[in-house]
Input
Amino acid sequence: MIFKKQLILFTLLLFLSCTEDNESILQYVDPFIGTDGTGQTYPGASLPFGMVQLSPDTRNDADQKACAGYHYSDSTILGFSHTHLSGVGQVDYTDILFMPTVGDIQFEPGTDINPESGYRSRFRHSSEKASPGYYSVILDDYDIKAELTSTLRAGFHRYTFPKSSEANIIIDLKHKENIVETVIETHISFIDNTKIEGYRRTNGVMAFDHTVYFSAEFSKPFISHQISSNEKINSTAIEAVGKDIKAALQFETSGNEQIMIKVGISAVDIQGARNNLHTEITDWNFDKIVKNAEEAWKKELSRITIESQSEEIKRVFYTSMYHSFLAPQIFMDADGRYVGAENKIYQSDDFTYYTALSLWDTFRAWHPLFTIIDQERTGDFIKSLLKLHEGTGRLPQWPLTGSTYDGMLGYHATSVIADAYVKGITNFDIEQAYKAMKTTMMSDAYGLNYYKNFGYIPCDLEGESVSKTLEYCYNDWCVAILAKELGKEEDYEYFNARAQFYKNVFDPETKLMRGKYSDHTWFKPFNPFVNSHYSEGNAYQYTFVPHDTKGLIELVGGEEQFDLWLDNFFTLKTPGKGLHYDHGDAIGQYVHGNEPDHHMAYLYNYVGKPWKTQRIVRKILQDMYNDTPNGLAGNEDCGQMSAWYIMSAMGFYPFNPGQDMYVIGSPLVDKAVINLENGKKFKVTVQNQSPENIYVQSVKLNGKIYNNSWINHHNIMNGGEIIFVMGNKPNENRASEKENYPLTDNTFITEIDMSYATPSDSVIMCNKPIDIDVSAVKKGIHYNYFEAAYRNTKHLEYFKA
Output
């Protein structure tokens, strides 16, 4: 009997321990991290991958720092809108704004300096609270407590009013029209004295012709209403359409009376918004919805659990996990309908459609992270990309709403697909995916015509020419890798040959990637620190050849020279001011706040100097992240900044997505457990961890001494444990031999018959010269010399998609 009581007590204590640990995850999430500086995050309420991001807006202008609607440095709030993007660097979204007020009705927001001139209100950060799925604040000008929570497709507001006969709720559908965003049309309709519906249609920077429909219900009938239609006020109209539609609802409230509002949204139609609302919020129990949101967040955040002696590290890690689940966003109604390519309505019965995939950023670490922790959703991400290909004929660069934003570069959907497949994720149509990759890279869009003709993109014919050339080389390699996996050997050889076009823009004199004219001469005068041939970076920062690190090392002059090149990269100061891409502090030329650099710290592993990688990685982890509102060194970019931290803090990083391999760095946590979908666990244990002990002394994998500076994806997915022993001095012998270097693909084709070409005005393609009729190319006569030469050698026609 005593034993039975002890067993029951032990079981209860174990349960309480697990519950406490699960609860503690939420307390370590701080949604205010990244809302200051250039982080561009928002503090409001959302579910993992939610369509709704119900959050306060402090600005309605085109200021990039507050592109998520909110900036921590502000002292007034305009209201609470239902859609936001997490750290994308562009001003967009913030649709359907509600604002509670007391007193005279005002339809203009007023100014931050003079909030009395409009409906906005002062607030203090001391009165703000934010946690996963919940936000609250006191609006000082009105003595109103505003509380927000959400489901996947509906927002839930709870406003606690003072006693007043002039309690109002303003609905501003024009909110945030500025020099970069245009309101096309807005509409509002009063169904009765507790229900209103409408829509907002806009042209944003990235979201073109974007419509958000809404259906709102109020817990208390309003006693009167006004509509402002293009600045004309009407107290009797029940419907209005125009570019500038706003409404005000009046209530009489007793002291501390709560008025709640449920708002369903949809990109499809009003019926979709109405159905989303009624499906996801069935009563007026605000606290229940908060609790449901917390449970949803616990489930996702517990995919990785960590231990650390540092409370700050736990806050940064779990907030990074939180940020990593805010995007992409579900863009499909509860009934399975969604707006896809060309703003057409589609029906899905077998997958969830997502939007807001910031591929130029997220292919680097965020998508590889999800190949580990969420393979099921990874398949749906890919299916969403393929649906856009079906409607447009090419894979998207930056899918957002029913359109694709082409303001970035490269086709990194190829990376997402290839990386998933080589890691064993097959819950999508792989043949369809391969066809989409191939047709996209065989197209002529966005400089690919020049790329195929010249073997690089000439800087006098296309902007950001060097960056685009390098990105396309990597994309070609991704196609080649998948072709090899699928047994398409001829395609593999062809795209693998194109993947080394990066050599055509490598300048052996400066040892940098440099712009080249269409006459094959180098761009002059050359300033490596700034010119328009790079996207958000300079010649130092854009050394982007993750797929052929061995080839890059050979170009620079071998391992010793490459080691010196990296040392210079991480110490070289930029002359003058304003020449760095403005995304936070720099380590020499390394700017962590912008993604092209994100792999650079791990390059030392490829020359047998992993201890130098460990030093730089730890410096980035410790200096570029913290648990304050200014805790991100650059904009969040839909989870990429956070994913870099998560992976690096566990001690390994996806240097080259498309390889099932992670390069080892310097783990920051004391312990991490990855709880895999297959029921297995992969454990990271770090011994002798401290801020000073940044160097890996030894590693054990599943109980055996492990000398490589990389681990395989399947090492993780099969479960097990990796143990790092740390110290304060480098172990320069560990992983210093070539046999321990990370694997690199260097099987490029070099023997292509270009013998017919003349050496004058030549470009190096696959180490062979070729003459190109530049005048014909400029006139639009595109004859693909590389493909012709390849066909001449291989006698193949397969490269036509």
Summary: The mean pLDDT is 90. Residues 86 and 638 are 5 Å apart (CA to CA). The chain has 19 helices and 40 strands. The radius of gyration is 28 Å.
